[in-house]
Amino acid sequence: MRISIWALIAAMSLSTHVNAEAPPTVKSPAGALRGEATGNLHVFKGIPYAQAPIGPLRWKPPLPAQEWKGTRDATKFGPACIQPKVRPGSIYTWELPPTSEDCLSLNIWAPADAHNAPVFFWIHGGALTTGVGSDAMYDGNKLASHGLVVVSINYRMGVLGYLAHPELSGESPDNISGNYGLLDQIAALQWVKRNIGAFGGNPSNVTIAGESAGGLSVMYLMASPKARGLFSKAIAESAYMISTPELRTSHFGDLAQEAVGTWLASKLGAHDLAALRAMDATAITEAAANAGFLPFGSVDGKVLPAQLVEVFDRGEQARVPILAGFNSGEIRSLRYLLPPAPADAATYEKEIRARYGDLADAFLKLYPSNDIAESMLKTTRDAMYGWTAERLVAKQTAVGAPSFLYLFDHGYPAADGHGLHGFHASELPYVFGTADKTPPAWPKVPATEAERSLSDAMTDYWASFARDGIPRAQGQADWHPYGTDRAYMLFAEKPRLSAHVYPGMYELAEQVVCRRHAKGGIPWNWNIGLASPPLPPETAQCQGK
After folding, report:
1. Can you list the domains of the chain with their CATH numbers?
2. What is each CA distance from 401 to 226, 323, 489, in whole angstroms?
3. Mind giving me the DSSP string for 102-145?
């Protein structure tokens, strides 16, 4: 049968058209997956990387994900992990997707032609209590368009992710409990190492990144021997290196985690572990939050070998390049972290002198009494977020890893009008390029060329760092390592290189933490400024700090 040349061309055109519209499929070691094409990107959603033990098996390390037959649909996000209801009116409140106890999934955005591309592994924040990797503000499209394979994850949170209990430890071959959410994150990194090559990613070039509790998780992963070798760089945005409760002892004023678990079980009317496991997952999550349970990692000698300050002081953390920073107005949207304000300047100074002793003059120079409200905001910001960011880059510099510090001091009318200049997490829409996808009560970023330009620059810097460990942005200032005159990048109206962020901040906070650590019995977290217990005297090990 003869076929005209025109019919042949038409058939070829139809075939090309059909292939172009076909959804992308990947055959990974975990199984075959069908995603969706978005422009020049391939997106795969809701991929199970592990299985959360539930019900009578609750509170165990993650199990291998169940195998599937055929090609799995990966066009819908997986359920969020169970979490308590968020406070109404919060700028961080969003409409939560369906939740499930079995929630360990990840999402991937990859360039259609990706090959051996750098991997950006995102860990969401939310105080280890709330959040989801599929939040629209973490949409990976823009970062992926810069040549990255972007991964976002869900992990167990709250009481389901971080409960320790003597009976749970007794079930463990290592005689430990807690840290299940952290073990989920490690399992997700192991999945990436085994499978990301099928999506065009390079398993040897993985950058772990997170903000707030995600930044805390980044530090946990840097400190954990179980995560060693699973990543090559780290980004910590607004992280906080607070004291971490220990599993069975109380060295630094925090209750032992097993004791907290025993207390919580009693509070909930559960006489043993079986009774706890018999409770509905959502009910126990709400009840634990209402009872005041706060999820943190546990120093157990295995998953977390020691306090973060000790690990980094001894240089035992992952010696990888790091990009770390904080925001100028961190506490403006987190005012519940502040203690009550004093009646007047005289009372403020009297309280500070009683609490800080020989360091009171240095404290009052940084946080004077002539504007108590601003000084209180800066005190908590610096002691939690500023000190942590500078400590991270200082300690990584000391072990020879390239380290880059930033300060996000950017405002815009909707934020500044509500007293939220540079508020906690306000850098995220700029990094991800998602100013149009923020939560409903979030101060809206104006759609101006100036805002787009700043976002483009920050995305460039973050993507470049993930690519080769050096943050660069086209047409923008060169970002020098911290070891060069304590350099940092200031993100205000536009990026500007500067040096020595908030002089005196790091030295004061370092001395306070060192003395508390040396003395024992005192945590270093929110008990600062007007909420600080009397500061212990200087010891030999703290001299020069």
Report:
1. 12-542 (3.40.50.1820)
2. 20, 11, 18
3. S--EEEEEEETT-SSEEEEEEE--STTTS--TT-GGG--HHHHT
Q: Write the secondary structure of 140-156 as one string of H (helix), E (strand) and C (coil).
A: CHHHHCCCCEEEEECCC
H/E/C letters for each residue in 480-541? Answer: CCCCCCCEEEEECCCEEEEECCCCCHHHHHHHHHHHHHHHCCCCCCCCCHHHCCCCCCCCHH
Q: Is 42 a catalytic residue?
A: no
For 156-186, the pLDDT digits (tens) are 999 999 999 999 999 999 999 999 999 999 9
- Following CA atoms 466, 43, 130, 245 in sequence, which dihedral angle do they give, to the nearest 10 degrees? -40
Structure confidence by residue, pLDDT tens digits, 51-78: 999 989 999 999 999 999 999 999 999 9
Closest CA to 387 of 545, 169, 253: 545
Catalytic site includes residue 212 = yes
CA 29 – CA 422 distance, rounded (Å): 43
Q: Could you tell me the two tokens for 321?
A: 């390049």
Residues 6+ apart with CB under 8 A from 451: 412, 430, 435, 445
Helices 213-223 & 180-195 angle (0-180, nearest 10) = 70
Q: Choosing from 212, 333, 403, 464, which is the catalytic residue?
A: 212
Smallest CA-to-CA distance from 428 within 442, 449, 414, 413 is with 442
Tell me whether residue 115 is one of the annotated catalytic residues. no
Selecting among 424, 426, 455, 464, the annotated active-site residue is: 424
- Marked catalytic residue, from 101, 237, 246, 330: 330
